[in-house]
Design goal:
The chain is about 35% helix and about 15% strand. A hairpin with a 5-residue loop joins strand 1 and strand 2. The chain is globular, with a radius of gyration of 18 Å.
Length: about 200
C-alpha cells in the first residue's frame, strides 16, 4: 500500500507537522507534452493508461499543436507495455489506420530507466512540489481543479518552463535543427500524495 508523500519543509521549532492521508489508491491520471523550446504544455486526462489512450493523447496533441510545413515530430516513448504496442502499431507501414500519425511523427528510442532524458519530468516535479507535496485533498474533484489551474498557466509560450526543461544535449546536438523537441509523459497524481510515478516518456518534435 502506497503511503502519503511527506517531504521536507519549513515549520516552527518544536511543532509536530501532521499531513492527512486518505485510504485507497485513487488519483488523477494525466498525459502531458511540453515543448522545451517554447515552454508550451499540453495536458490530457485519460481514464487509464493503455495503448489506446496513448494513441489518443498523441492525436489530441497533434491536433492542438500545429507544426510548420516540412517539420517532423520526433517522439520518444519508454518501454511500458502500452507504449510498445502503440509504437508498434503506428510504425507498421501496412496499418493505414495510423497513417496520419506516421506522416508527422517519428519514434526514437531511449535506454530503459532513463527518466532524466525526459524534459517533462521537470514539469511533473514542479507540479508535485507546488501542488501535492505535504498537502491533503479531500476528494478528486479538488485535486483535478487544482492541477488544471496549475497547468493552465503554461499553455502559452513561457520562459519558466523553457528554463526548467532545457537540456544541454539538445542544444549541442540539435542547435541547427529545424525540428522542435517536446517531452511527453503519463503521470498519476494521487489525492493522498502517494507515489506519483507511472511511466516515463520522452517526445522530441
Amino acid at each position: 500500500m502506497l503511503g502519503t508523500l511527506v517531504t521536507k519543509g519549513w515549520f516552527p521549532v518544536g511543532s509536530i507537522p501532521i499531513v492527512g492521508s486518505a485510504p485507497g489508491k485513487s488519483g488523477v491520471p494525466l498525459s502531458g507534452f511540453v515543448s522545451i523550446k517554447s515552454g508550451e504544455t499540453f495536458i490530457t486526462s485519460p481514464e487509464r493508461f493503455t495503448w489506446e489512450s496513448t494513441i489518443a493523447a498523441i492525436r489530441s496533441f497533434l491536433k492542438s499543436y500545429k507544426c510548420k510545413r516540412g517539420h517532423k515530430i520526433y517522439m520518444i516513448l519508454d518501454n511500458a507495455p502500452w507504449h510498445k504496442k502503440a509504437k508498434r502499431l503506428i510504425r507498421d507501414e501496412n496499418n493505414e489506420e495510423y497513417a496520419d500519425i506516421r506522416a508527422k511523427v517519428k519514434f526514437l528510442d531511449i535506454p530503459p530507466y532513463s527518466p532524466d532524458l525526459n524534459p517533462i519530468e521537470q514539469l511533473w516535479r514542479k507540479a508535485r512540489y507546488e501542488i501535492t507535496h505535504n498537502r491533503f485533498f479531500k476528494n478528486l474533484k479538488d485535486l483535478k481543479s487544482t492541477l488544471a489551474s496549475f497547468f493552465r498557466k503554461f499553455i502559452e509560450p513561457n520562459d519558466e518552463i523553457v528554463s526548467l526543461c532545457q537540456f544541454d544535449f539538445t542544444k549541442d546536438r540539435h542547435s541547427e535543427s529545424k525540428h522542435l523537441w517536446v517531452g511527453m509523459e503519463h503521470k498519476l497524481f494521487r489525492k493522498n500524495m502517494a507515489q506519483n510515478s507511472i511511466d516515463e516518456v520522452l517526445v522530441p518534435i
